[in-house]
Amino acid sequence: MARMGGMRHLKRLAAPHFWPILRKEYVWVVKPRPGPHPIERSIPLLVLVRDVLGYAETAREARRIIAEGKFWIDGVPRKDYKFPVGLMDVISIPETDEHYRMVPHPQKYLWPLEIPKEEAGLKLVRIENKTTVKGGHIQLNLHDGRNILVRVSNPSNPAEDTYKTMDSLLIRVPSQEIVEHIRFNKGSLAIVIDGRNVGRVGRVIDVVKGMGRDRTLVTLEDLEEHRFQTVLSYVFIIGSEKPALKLW
After folding, report:
1. Among candidates 226, 239, 235, which has minimal Cα distance to 198?
2. Residues 169, 185: contact at Cβ < 8 Å?
3. Continuous segment of H or E residues that includes residue 61
4. So what's the pLDDT on residue 161?
5. CA separation for the pair 237, 204 (Å, rounded)
6. Are 152 and 159 within 8 A, CB to CB?
């Protein structure tokens, strides 16, 4: 992929391969603003509305209906047509009562999946990092740019700190209330979010640790008992015995 950082504009030929846009009929395409997801793992709201969901035929139409606040991301109306929509984000359209979740797809890499209204207020997030902040409290840094503060009663013995990096959380949006903590353990159910196995679902069988997440190999077994491997950074835990949410 061509370099895309540091420039205000983006050529269609350099855009991420999974964007469903015509590459050679036009030169430019809208570039996502810096936000909760990196450009190579997100899609701008305008492209999502026009080219994926089909709610507009032109960029002008898409910008107008986005500016009217008709599209909500994770429970918040987004009026910026350059807003980056990424992994596990929930797209809601209140006027039509439609709800979608951005999930990994074997052919399309990242694609919206229609979900029931009951799940529109829930989201799966992965813990990328955690830090200790003032007062000894724990801050969880999540894959979509969120930070959740876990308050501890005794900083010298933080019994509330049961979270580890690469674990997943089921949270309510936009309040960020933690509903469930899903641990990264052998036997946990996971989905692959990148690489040649993107979109495949399986249970964690083994983890061979290396220097960093990109050199740590995870062996998974899919529902047909076929085993495959991917690196740790591509593994997203989605449940213990069954998926916490609809993902396919």
Report:
1. 235
2. no
3. helix 59-67
4. 87
5. 9
6. yes
- Mean pLDDT across the stretch 17-33? 94
pLDDT confidence bin for 80, thresholds 50/70/90: very high
Taken in order of first residue, the domains within the chain and their CATH numbers are 10-116 (3.10.290.10), 122-182 (2.40.50.740), 189-239 (2.30.30.30)
pLDDT digits (tens, 9 = 90+) for 117-162: 999 999 999 999 999 999 899 999 999 999 999 999 888 888 888 9
C-alpha–C-alpha distance, residues 40 and 106, integer Å: 16
pLDDT in tens, 82-124: 999 999 999 999 999 999 999 999 999 999 999 999 999 999 9
Tell me which residue of 118, 119, 80, 127 sits closest to 103, measured CA to CA: 119
Amino acid letter, residue 203: R
Identify residue 30 by its one-letter amino acid code: V
Kindly report whether the global pTM for this prediction surpasses the value 0.90.
yes
